[in-house]
Amino acid sequence: xxxxxxxxxxxxxxxxxxxxxxxxxxxxxxxxxxxxxxxxxxxxxxxxxxxxxxxxxxxxxxxxxxxxxxxxxxxxxxxxxxxxxxxxxxxxxxxxxxxxxxxxxxxxxxxxxxxxxxxxxxxxxxxxxxxxxxxxxxxxxxxxxxxxxxxxxxxxxxxxxxxxxxxxxxxxxxxxxxxxxxxxxxxxxxxxxxxxxxxx
Length: 200
Description:
Distance between the termini: 34 Å
Radius of gyration: 16 Å
CATH superfamily: Ribonuclease H-like superfamily/Ribonuclease H
Oligomer: single chain
Number of helices: 6
Order of helices and strands: EEEHEHHHEHEH
Largest sheet: 6 strands, mixed
């Protein structure tokens, strides 16, 4: 199984520069950002980039410290799709373009994708590395110093029912200096956050 930790960063929520990052537990990683966004956009972008960067038959597990991102990509997404990309109250799904892109990326991947939650800032080295990379990418996006190919336009809300547009993507990868080792991750747990309709 491929295990990848993701994280997002927003320097001033909402509207500040954002950064996203994924860190494969084999040591490879990638990051990028955008000039403006929200913390939710950053977290969802990190998940999307992680899935797109790891195609193939091998099972993929995405681990994040954002329960919002995990629930969007797994628990809430099927219901939204069944309702024509509407919430239970009939309102539009927030960050719809990214949610639909994640849905498509999972569907197009030949191997299964699962998700797990890990508490942030508790010493998980992969989560800490993703946090560090996402923060650096957000600062670089703010300062206009992101490497070519890693800047993303802020995603826009797409019309309900519209298929997301797959944009050309390029990421940079690096190899971590620390040796690879598997670590356990806590299963996704029920958040005390409001249900999706209350959020959206």
